[in-house]
């Protein structure tokens, strides 16, 4: 790289993304229960950020000066900036929660604590505590134990100060939110709805818990530890890969602390006691917070009150080309079909699997599995296929972060049903999402493929915006077969003409496409790159985008999360614009369009432009050859680019300013895209 270009630190860019989530929680135009949900999403995101990214920065700090280059800054300085921004966002979070609480009150929904219970409510809470909570409580008297107890990751505790006339003691109680609902709905009074948190039910009953001690004052404060979640998998080849992952998951629960969050009203002597016993210092990100932690639970807040407190639910549309109760195979032999979730039904794919499972002409089904639903219809269809005599092969990625345990469990279940299970590829995470069905037609094998940007997960398909291609085009299906051959025999690598695969060729091919646009622009011809992805981080890719923009290429980027590129800098990125859309669906698809001197090239992919996706994972970037689907993708991208309701402008200042309507027409992309597909469905009908 000939020139040093500006890059935004990825940790700070990620925090800027989470700030956009917080903006949704703060927006009075968002329905109230959805605002609570966004607070939960923000909290869940932040937990994972500390468990993974902050933990990584702390590890990198051990590399010395080399870490400065990797982080675009010194680790300690990055950690300080992260801490300051997290504290700032935390204060805003608390203010938003208070505001939402007050607004809910006006709608007859009261989130109350233990000090606000009426006599009747108090009796209800006492009974509930005795029947459901007390059996799960294990109070620990901290002054009486020789070794301070290990605090588990993702768990909240009540740190308790007990004060009497002559003595003071400290205690610890784990809040059993894993086995008991976090929210308890109390009997309604005068048409008003009351909800109390499990934490406060415990607080209300602490005098009963410690009744044998005769303390005159009991104070309880929520605390929480976040631990390093990165798996350390050694290179002991004598140990099975599954055993390594299983041990890594267990070790994750004992990772080093990377964040300690506490109620900012906690007694100073109690906080000092905890810091001393847990050996915590500033590098552990000591974060003062509000009364409640683990706000991720608010993602599942009870559905109460009027219907307008939630977003209107769109009923996923039937794809106009896929007939109900008829075979899909003839349709796919005629033309490609692309499904767009959650606007269209994920059940179409389930139906294809079910048809394949019982069709006597189908001989085999192969599929990659990264994250599946808890009660997976996909898994059920594969098991049914195996019972019907089909050869079923699954590539199960047991390194799917935070889903390792579930995937190991599913893999064993599949094996028990006689399905051939491949446990990923050693040294590479399989992130591509592929399914291949082989059917005997007129004595010859015909392949049908599903290539998608999202997981084979019917639950997340309701909230993740993804694209999935169904095709019988041999140019694509033959290469999907080659990819599965590689999974089965890692030494067998084919030359791919159509697919772009990581780690074999993605970086090289994408750079070539970017540079070709730059060359076209230098000749004075129109040149454009239109990109959509979750994260844009890789410095080499960004550098080539900068240089293409300087050559005259018009570059538009829609990026949901991290964006290390700085758009709109004079002389550097004048021709580059970037936006981020945060709305009720999580934008998850990756689409790459290159003008290609008047003959546009369309790709969709499982890969973001991050070093790990380009160089250290199996990722599939698939071309779109069908002209109607190309038009469909371009229409969707243009609708998103015209969003002036939920789109934020990305720049070096990271202010996340909303793009405002320049005319009278408001465009909310996710609503407009649903209307677009609904109109097309009605036209076909």
Q: Could you walk me through the main structural features you see in this protein, from its secondary elements to its overall organization?
A:
- By secondary structure, the protein is an alpha/beta fold.
- It has three domains: 10-304, polyphosphate kinase like; 329-495, Endonuclease Chain A (Endonuclease, Chain A, 2-Layer Sandwich), CATH 3.30.870.10; 501-684, 2-Layer Sandwich (Endonuclease, Chain A).
- 38% of the residues lie in helices and 22% in strands.
- It contains 19 helices and 27 strands.
- Strands 14, 18, 19, 20, 21, 23, 24, 25, 26 and 27 form a ten-stranded mixed sheet that branches.
- Strand 26 (647-649) and strand 27 (657-658) form a beta hairpin.
- Helix 15 runs parallel beside helix 16.
- The protein is globular and about 85 Å long.
- The model is unreliable at 231-239 (pLDDT under 50).
Radius of gyration (Å): 27 Å
Main pleated-sheet profile: 10 strands, mixed
Strand portion: 15-25%
For the record, the CATH class of the largest domain is Alpha Beta
- The H-level CATH homologous superfamily of the largest domain, spelled out, is Polyphosphate kinase middle domain
- Helix-strand makeup class: alpha/beta
The total domain count is: 3
- The overall average pLDDT, rounded, is 90
Straight-line N-to-C gap? 54 Å
Question: At the third CATH level, what is the topology name of the largest domain?
Answer: polyphosphate kinase like
Number of helices: 19
Low-confidence stretches: 231-239
Q: Would you identify the CATH architecture of the largest domain?
A: 2-Layer Sandwich
Oligomer: single chain
What would the principal axes of the Cα set say about the shape?
globular
Fraction of residues in helix: 25-40%
